[in-house]
Amino acid sequence: MTLSRLAELSADPAASFVLIARDGADTVELLSGDVVDVELLADIPLAIDGTPREVFALVPYRQVRERGFVAQDDGAPLRCVVVDEHLHLPTTELLAGLPADPVPLHDDGFDIADAEYAAIVEKVIAEEIGRGEGANFVIRRDFTANIDVDDRTAALTWFRALLTHERGAYWTFAVFTPGHIAVGASPEAHVVAREGIVTMNPISGTFRHPAGGATKETLIDFLASTKETEELFMVVDEELKMMSAVCSDGGRITGPHLKEMSRLTHTEYMLRGRSALDPRDILRETMFAPTVTGSPMQNACAVIRRHERKARGYYSGVAALFTPNADGGHDLDAPILIRTVYLEDGQLSVPVGATLVRHSDPQGEVSETHGKAAGVLGAIGAIERDRVAEARSDADAPAEERALGDDPQVAALLSSRNARLAEFWLNPQGEEFTGPFVGRTALVVDAEDRFTTMLAHQLRHLGLAVTIAGWSDVQDADLDAADLVVAGPGPGDPRDEENGRIARMREVVGRRLEAGSPLLAVCLSHQILADRLGIALTPLDAPHQGLQKSVPVFGEDASIGFYNTFTARVDPETTTVGAAEISADMSSGDVYALRGPHFASVQGHLESILSRDGIRTLERLVSHALA
User: pLDDT grade, residue 304 (50/70/90)?
Assistant: First the structure.
């Protein structure tokens, strides 16, 4: 009966349905219903005529505009399937009924030539990362091809191949709606909300299995890489910004873990916190994963808009399933839309992206996109499958080949990473704060880096009543009324007075200084404060993006995370400038912190997971500013 229902839906080109195989399940879910396209996340119809409904939604990248970020508008619909029928099909029976004949590709290749893509990479590194616009950015290109098979038949064929050969995917899925068909195996649950608990799953670091499959020795070599470790830390920081915006307790880190798939192994953390928000609001505040956009998120969107040749469609968006729960609300399960094939009118498209950092090699990033496209095409059987790199999963395989993450040496190497991280984010924090500054207010001015949400959470932990205001929205009256103003971090060149954001942050810092009112300045704003005090600003020889350093902060050494391209710099022997004290590097003269009458500042990000001494140092600097 259930298989015949799938056959009936597949034969109807006007029918809309979704197939979902969740990791570890022995059934495939079949959801069918009418399609409704809506403009905003708030319009997703979770209830019709007062009755809660289950809804599956394809959320395109362009919805990031709901957060006030820029994106090319290709009109990709926010497509909802309002579920009328939800069946569970036994996987083994389903496999026997799905088409299996190979689907040949022709006229295949990338939409952007290798040399052109390499030139884009060079430009982003020089003009964006090199000028302080962010830590990393993801720039995509599409592999395209034509097929001579009906789109729905091809998608069902490829879904069968994924069910047969892929493992470890969070969701293996196929979506069939008029004009939009997608099939893929997403490794990552971007955001999940169940029973008041929000979970995010930042994944970074990709170990491509060598010939013969992964071994403990080859995996240990990968895990020992400082570059891979620090890239994961940067992604966790970026997603904690989102968690701090939606969770009353800020979010707690657990992990790291291994995500073991057929040909790839990733490293990941889990972030968990409590939230009473509507799941649509949670989804809006967490658009989208930094692993496929970059950081800081708002500027990453601007960089993508400047350098990508065309709009993203659904690439880097999410597939979101809203399911009614016993409390009268909805649970949310939203994997990221990567490793996905899109089909329309006989043409296949596989979007893939490379993460660009300051040390990126353009040819290496070109190869990265080739590898990612080949991984998807091999997984669906569209090209020859790389069987020699598949992880073994048969019952007779040695234990270390079945689950390398269970090996004591591997587990110890993974857990050792947390020794570098702030205990503040590793421990439960609670939702009621009774710190030393209870009864005082703080206004955090956001300069387009949502590190301010993490900073605000830490300030609340210290007892302050905190509000956040964007640089373009904050009013002078609000600045004057707060007990403490925290001028926040942000991208860009602090010397660029033609930039409206930089100019406004200069006004914020100057107004508090002139009034003699308590001020804490962080990163970009620390540089602006230093400039106002007459300290020279200069670009670093090598940007400090996701760098952990132990630095002097007024008599104490503090382990702090840095994300800066520019620095204030003095003669290493200089300890004061005017009425301000200086904590600087003893060799380079880079200024790490400043303090004076009713003000303090810090170059690093005390809120970062890389700041082991962050909360302690923050309390010291706030105490000085408020004294």
Answer: very high
